[in-house]
Design a protein that fits this description.
7 strands, alpha+beta, 3 helices
C-alpha cells in the first residue's frame, strides 16, 4: 500500500508539474503573440515616422499603405475617411512645415485575441514653419488614438484609427483643434 501511495504521489506530482509547464507555455505563447503584434505595429510606425520626418509625401503614403488594410478607416466623430482622404490630409499637414524635427509613435497599450487586436497609440509630430509675418514658429501636435489591428496574410495591419485626444501647440502655447495654417479664433 505504501508503494501504491508513492506511485500515486509521483503521478500526481508529475501531473502538476506538467500542468504548470503547459500553462507556462500557453502564457509564453500568448505573450509572444502580443509581442508579435506590438513589434510589427511599432516597426510599421517607425518606418512611417522616418518618412514623415523626411517630409517625403510619396514615401509616407507608400509606407503607410503597406501597414493598413484595404478597407482602412479613420473615424473622427460621425465622419469617416478612407485611406486616400486620410493620407491626403496627413501629407498636407506634413508638407506645410519647413522642417520636421520629431515624428514619434508610442504604443501605450495593446490587447490581442486571435487575429484581432486593439491598441492605444500616441503619435507626436513637431516641426517649424514660417507665419505670414516671416517669423519661424515651432508647431507641435500630439494625438492619442484607439487603433484596431487585423492579421492579414500573416501580417498585422491597422484597420481603424479613432482619435481620442489631440493637442496642437504653437511655440508651446495651446492652439486647441485649429487646422494647421489657420489662426485661432479671437475671443
Amino acid at each position: 500500500m505504501a508503494g501504491l501511495a508513492k506511485t500515486w504521489s509521483g503521478v500526481y506530482t508529475w501531473a502538476i508539474v506538467n500542468k504548470v509547464a503547459v500553462l507556462a507555455l500557453l502564457f509564453a505563447v500568448a505573450g509572444f503573440a502580443q509581442a508579435d503584434v506590438k513589434s510589427e505595429i511599432n516597426a510599421a510606425n517607425n518606418k512611417i515616422d522616418r518618412a514623415i520626418k523626411a517630409k517625403d509625401a510619396k514615401l509616407v503614403e507608400s509606407t503607410m499603405r503597406e501597414s493598413v488594410t484595404k478597407d482602412f478607416k479613420y473615424v473622427e466623430g460621425s465622419k469617416s475617411q478612407d485611406f486616400k482622404t486620410f493620407i491626403t490630409n496627413l501629407n498636407s499637414s506634413v508638407v506645410v512645415m519647413d522642417k520636421i524635427t520629431l515624428s514619434k509613435s508610442r504604443m501605450l497599450s495593446i490587447k490581442q485575441k486571435g487575429n484581432h487586436g486593439t491598441g492605444k497609440m500616441e503619435h507626436i509630430i513637431v516641426g517649424t514653419m514660417k507665419s505670414p509675418d516671416k517669423k519661424t514658429h515651432t508647431m507641435s501636435w500630439t494625438g492619442v488614438f484607439t487603433e484596431t489591428y487585423v492579421r492579414v496574410d500573416g501580417k498585422w495591419k491597422t484597420s481603424i484609427i479613432v482619435p481620442k485626444t489631440q493637442k496642437y501647440l504653437m511655440d508651446g502655447k495651446p492652439l486647441g483643434t485649429v487646422a494647421v495654417g489657420v489662426p485661432p479664433a479671437k475671443k
